[in-house]
Every structure is written in C-alpha cells, then in structure tokens.
What does this fold into?
Amino acid sequence: MGDLLIFTDKGIYCAAGDFYIDPWRPVPRALITHGHADHARPGHGSYLATAAAAPVMRHRLGDISLETIGYSKTRQIGDVTVSFHPAGHVPGSAQIRIEHKGEIWVVSGDYKIEPDGFSEPFEPVTCHAFITECTFGLPVFKWQPQADVIGQINDWWRQNAAAGRTSVLGAYALGKAQRILSAVDASIGPILTHGAVENTNDVLRAQGLKLPETVYAGPDLKIKDYPGALVICPPSGFGGGWTRRFGAHSTAFASGWMALRGVRRRRAADRGFVMSDHADWDGLNTAITETGAERIFVTHGYTSVFRRWLAEQGYDARIVETEYEGEALDQTETEAAE
It folds into this structure.
C-alpha cells in the first residue's frame, strides 16, 4: 500500500480523492486548513474549508468557488472520507482528517493546544500518520499561561497611559490581534487599530465573534483625542513613519520569538510579550502523543532538530519540505485583511 498522502511541488496531494491540502501552486481542488496567506492562496479551481474560516478567505481571496463544512462532519471525496477538526490556531482553523480503507492521516496545518478563549479549542485526532508543523520545535520555547501574558500587556499599557504615552503593539492581523483584543482590559483606555487589523475585525464581528470597540487609526486620526490609547498593528506597521504619528509612545511585539533575547534586541522594541498562535515544545509533543500516530511528518520550523528528537522517542519521523512560513516577525500575511 502506498502513502495516502504524497508531497509534491504543488503541495500535499491525495490521489485517492484527487485533491490537495493547503497547496502553494494553483490546483483544481484545494482543501484549506485556515485563512492565513501561506495556507490559503489564490488561483485554485475550488476550495473547501470550515464555515468559520470562509468569511476571511472570501475577504482575502475575492470571488472564489468555496464550499464549507462544519467541524467533525464527514464528506466523501472520491475514495476517501474527510473531516475537519479544530486546530486552535485562529478562528475557523482546522486539522484535516483523511480516511481510506481503514488508514487515517491527519494534516494539522498550524495549531496550538492552549485554549485562548477566542478560537475554537484544539481537539486531538487519532490517526496512523500525522503531519505537523514545528515552528517552535525547540525545548527553549515554553509558553506562559495566556492570562499571565495578558496581565503583562495590561500592566505595560496602564503604565504608559499614566505616563502620557501611547502603547503600540505588533501582532498578526488575523488571529493574534483579535486574541489580544478579546482578552485585554479595555477599561484602561481607547483601542486603535491599523487598517489590516480593523478590516479583519469587521469580518470576524460580522460572523458573530465578540470584540471590544476599536477605532481605525486612519490618516485623519488625531492622537490627542485618544489619550492613553493601545494601538494594535501588524509587525510590518513598525516600518517607516507609521508609528511616529502617535507622538510619545512605547513599542512592543507579541510573538513566540520574544522568548529569544537576541530577537528582542534586533527588533529594538521597548517590550516583548511571549505569545504565539503556534504550539510550543510541550504542546507539539502532547499533540503528537495524543494522536497515537507512529508516522510523523514534520514541515516548517526546526525540522532537523525536531525530527531527530521524535526518532529518539521511537517514531518513524521524516522531514517534508513545504512553503508554509510559520510565525515570522517580518511576515506580513500579505497583511491580508487590507
């Protein structure tokens, strides 16, 4: 019996169903784990994604041929049965389960196992073969509880507001920005957003997700009207003169990479908050253990180190080359919600 999924120059391909999962080249039929630009790309003939991922995908990709499916619902495609299961990464994100003649593979996309109170919580899926990211596949990456990190952000914001400074926080426009917005103490001051963040907020609000009131930080905004504000923008918003318009301000990034001091120094931000929408070292290992899989394929991240670790634990572990990007501070996500 050959592999149920194979890895091609276009993406992960299922011959028995004649479809691709998160392909990076145009294909006739694509199953999509979530709406980030490295996983949901333009140019495919048709798309299948969760109902919760669909609004952002339509916003980003335009008038595409997109079918939706509910979590845990099964669909027969060719000779295989597929279903989508929560990945905990961003709203609507999914792991995709493929079953054929009793053999089960799961493509996890991007995931985290800590519930964040905003995205659908991760659910482990039993399988024989598991395709996993390892963006943060080193033991040094160990996340603090979200409540602790949000407390740090609130304290920083509160101190800046008391000192007459605007707080400018870099966070991805889809997922992390809304995760922070839904958890911070909005009573501290007004919340302003970059256009990429605000456009994504609009899409998510329209599908019923709850966020605090925010104000678009457009070119006509007068910062004096919003003393003590928190501004949330994509990492790319720190370039050029965009932040200078806020007068006296303090800058920070919310990223898993803030766990590395060298990265914090290079970014020259005043603060770094260690928060990621990807699993840390313990999360990766827990997720893999809970699948019960014997075959593990590692994609983007610390692939060599993580594959070797898994092999030492007795797994049949292999590295797969893909074009997924994981979490990068300079990644713009196409700042897709613009």
Observations:
- The first helix runs from residue 54 to 61.
- The chain has two domains: 6-140+277-333, 146-273.
